[in-house]
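User: These chains co-purify. Model them together.
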Amino acid sequence: MNTPTVSSNPDRPKRLVMQGITKQYPGCLANDSVDLDIGVGEIHALLGENGAGKSTLMKIIYGVVKPDAGQLIWEGETIRIKDPAHARKLGIGMVFQHFSLFETLTVTENIALALGNEADDMKALAEKIRSVSARYGMALNPQRYVHSLSVGERQRVEIVRCLVQDIRLLILDEPTSVLTPQEVDTLFITLRRLAEEGCSILFISHKLNEVKALCHRATVLRAGRVSGACIPTEEDASSMARMMVGDETPISMDYDKVQGQAVFLQVRGLNQRSDDPFGVDLKNINLDVHAGEIVGIAGVAGNGQEELLAALSGEDIIKNHDAIHFPCGPVGHLCPEKRRRKGLAFVPEERLGRGAVPDMSLKDNALLTGFLTGLIKNGMIDHEGTESFAKKIIKQFKVKTPDSGTHAKSLSGGNLQKFIIGREIMQNPQLLVAAHPTWGVDIGAATAIHQALIDLRDQGAAILIVSEDIDELFLISDRLCAICDGALSPIKPTPQVTLEEVGRWMAGMFDELLPDEKTPEANIVSLQSTAAAVKTH
Amino acid sequence: MDIDLITNILYAMIRTGTPLLIVALGEMVCEKSGVLNLGQEGMMLMGAVAGFIATWLTGNLFFGFLMAIVAGVLMSQLFAMIALGLNANQVATGLALTIFGTGLSAFIGSGFVGNPIEGLDVIAIPFLSEIPVIGKMLFAQDLIVYLSFVLFGVIFWFFRSSRTGLIVKAVGENPHAANAIGLPVMRTRYLAVAFGGAMAGLAGGYLSLAYTPLWAENMTSGRGWIALALVVFASWRTERILLGAYLFGLASILHLVAQGLGFAVSPNLLAMLPYIATVLVLVMMSRNQGQSKMYAPISLGKPFHAGT
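Assistant: Joint model of the two components:
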């Protein structure tokens, strides 16, 4: 990747200056007199951990949230941004992390909705969408329905929606978290081009290498305050990470890669049609997870992860019982409880609503999956046992909560995640299936969760992790694969895989599965892996 | 069956289906914006009683219809105040509205039961109304039936090609996204509820001023409820609502015909026919989940708070 061509020029005219922005939520000071300025044509990074106040700050710029104190100076004038419509009029566009698109409408209709009455001529608008998307290298078919688009394509719709207007400041909230590495490169080319044309860009992220590659300047937030400002190209990643997390937290760890023992989970030819019209069908999934290893599945959201997890957890019953095997026999026909009795523990993607019941106390939530460990006797709940089980989870996984009677919904996302992971791990499962184990969790807690998973692995459990965070998968997985459109890539030991290869897998290019399109190079790869497979048998 | 009977059945089918069509179209617009108003029955009854009293006092049918619409809108805005303004549970509020409307209309109308008025006249369109079989059905109806044809066309077009229709759909699918791109979520919902109220009032007025020109307590006899079911089973599609409403009309007439022909079946069982037939046919049509999901307002019934 090339380094930014425009250096950080302090004399660059300012597009937006924020002074002393303060926003208080009940029980939480989200922004504490934050100062930030963005120049014309500058790509400015806003760095920070989850909960550092990044989202609040950009919602203030976009007029969704009103600050308690402080002022905004837009192109030299002090203003109050009333609502998102007002922000759009000023030329502020925003690409949300969770997209604000309408699935049942077409690309053109989605964009027309944001434009106001001038967008009445749909044909002219479709033409404009085509030309804008071609100009910035983002292929897009205006007639497609949004629900049929991939996540990367949806992001393009959001960006193009900003670009068809007179855009002066583009805010992107964690835009790369849903993209393959290749898609990230394409996005950066587009953003650089936009900045060269004078558009200011506020790039919100916690991925330091991306910030280094793209941004002219960076402002770092920690616990609602500006904890540092820097020029990313002149810093190294660890000094920026220090600004993000403070001094106490360990930042990076390395874990040994190991080889598993006997196969615990065996999936053979798993085909499952999705009931949801917007869902993904699983196509001939083959997967082995050995006891004492961690297998990671990478992939862009919405490529069949939910369906695969439902099939493994027992939420969806599999017609072909033999498709999923535990050592005790086929389990495809068993409900979640029966599978749990055979050694499964499961951490679902959604914390509130599936991982935990929001309106129930932590103690009751602990009982929900912990009842198999003898917390129910003769049909009666063992309250004392449950209480001490919950307390053990809270203590061992450092869950920040007043006591075990607190409702699940009043915990922060990261804390609840620690509790749910803890609840499953404490039951000493033989197989743990976990989705996004550290999603929305700060670096310190993520390290703790990773360590707990590694410990469980070393005790001999088989672990399957589904995650969108490739760095995490490289860190903790012993073997790695990717899912795309309901099909699984080949699985390889992590040290033998490159980031580029995983990126190709995430985009659906599994060399072995496409004999017709093989390049000579891919042929060699598949020959090698065939040879390797022969050797192991 | 002779041709006169068929002609009359078809004519009556349209007349019987019309109030249902009007109220269901109104509710569909309301639901498309994401608001579930279960108060249709109450709003219809208030429309019916207000229209009847206004006409009885002034002798002016058009004033009566106007008052029916006003009553429907007022009732709907009472609902909107509670369910949208105060973010109360929409289902509970809607049920309360129906109970309130049923009781209030009975109370207000108690002195007017059994009073006769001159109902709405049929306007036969020259030449067209003389076409055999379908002439009478389509071109010898009263003004409100013609109006319902127009309303159907307008609403069909509204959701198919208008920008405002697109906004209503967007607000019903994802109000947070709609707010984020600067669409007026709350205003859209208030207006959609008001439109639903106006249509329910009009439908009620049609019952007491044209269909059976008199006032009787609870005279809507569950049409508000069947309209609610109709909207769901029609998968929020305008053309299917039209079909469902007339199907209900047809079945209602056929059960009277069947009684007239002296079938040895309890008339009470026959009276169930329209409800069962309508629901059955529409359930079969809405089997295809994928199709209906494209039209269903995903955020139906969920309150929306801006700024969260």
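The mean pLDDT of chain B is 90.
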